[in-house]
Amino acid sequence: MDGILHELNCCFVYLDDILIASSSPKEHEADLSSVFHLLATNDLVINTQKCIFGQATITFLGHKVTPNGITPVPEKVKAITEFPKPYDKRTLQHFLGMLNYYLRFLPGIAKRLAPLTEATKSRSKVITWTDDCQTAFEAAKSSLASATLLKHPDPKSETRLSTDASDSAIGAELSQKHHGMWRPIAFFSRKLTSTQSRYSTFDRELLAIYSAIQHFRFFLEGRPFSVLTDHKPLTYALTSKTARSPRQERQLSYIAEFTTGIRYISGPNNVVPDVLSRAPCTEQPMVASASLIPPINLARMAAEQLRDPKVAELRKQAGALKLKEINLGGYNLLCDVSTSRPRPIVPSLWTKTIFEAIHNLSHPGHKPTTRAISARYVWPGLKREVKNMVRACHSCQASKIGRHIKTALNSFDPPDRRFGDIHVDLVGPFPPSEGCTYLFTIIDRFTRWPKAVPIKTLRQQHVPGLYFGTG
Q1: What range does the record give for the signal peptide (predicted)?
Q2: 178 φ, ψ to 5°?
Q3: Are the CB atoms for 204 and 240 separated by under 8 Å?
């Protein structure tokens, strides 16, 4: 569906749900006509009983979308605000998992959740419910009931990412300028590890920018934006020739792929990120998250399993897999039951279909794509095949942005004698000449005396002999 409607900027597709946003009723009619035309061209039919047209306010994926912005759905909020007091660690994790879905609406909530997150660290299934836990529990529900209104992103509006770091956490606010006022789009914060908390101020502030861009990559990639930080040395870190550690070079290089505009903002004016970074937040698992499985023809997959030679080989030698025939949708499918849920064994003809159904949702890298697929399906050579398919994905290659910063060159001490310091290199391949396609080059740094030796191969055992035989 996303591939069919990708050319329409008014459409937002999530699996088989289509959201069409327009700025006026007349424009909405034109957008609907364009969508209907593309659907008809591709022989797709919509269920009119499940469609809603011409609405100023709608509910979509657990959020209330209005002309002014987006907030949590009151019915979903009610389920959390009326959540009873947790009686064990699993119930508390369930509550935090539901709250996690709306964390981007709650600036500074991590500080209030600290007693609850500490309670989940116990190895015991029974939790000690203190007065601080009760206060945090009520404060979390109260904060969600009055959640911050987040403005709709505007591709034409000026965008900025404000970051800050403290001794224990990092935080960020993503905002855009609307009618001369900066309005929040989303918030981010996380706790530092024990190692990261010992970083220097420069490294912690750099980590805040690096982590925030990683978190908001889906929004920032390919979009001009500026980064605001209250640590002034970072404003010229991308252009400075100062020697950096490998970690700093790696993080600066990643940041430069998205922006080179890092600007200084005084601490008192960097309010929201500062509050988020001071909150000792702890990341929580999404206990209540949904499992997204692309629709497949189970009858055809079951039939193909019986014909596929690789599946037949697995039946004889499963290795670490625990195979069992499972009835899914009325059809018996060979599945791996070694994990918490059965994973169908995918025949060779179906691997590309499964890959495209999951990877095309947001075009992540090969590692997250592999994790998403392997959580639901399995087949021989899955990791290698997924990695190759991600590398061959046209959309990923077309949208990839390559920016590189100029790193400082290492310096050498001046030479003081002939052949005291030499440079060697292997160059090629070149067009064959008398059977040789490479050159082994040597240059004396003091006299600039050069030597080039033609060689046929780059085998490691031949190189030392070339060096000692050219003196």
Answers
A1: none
A2: -125, 115
A3: no
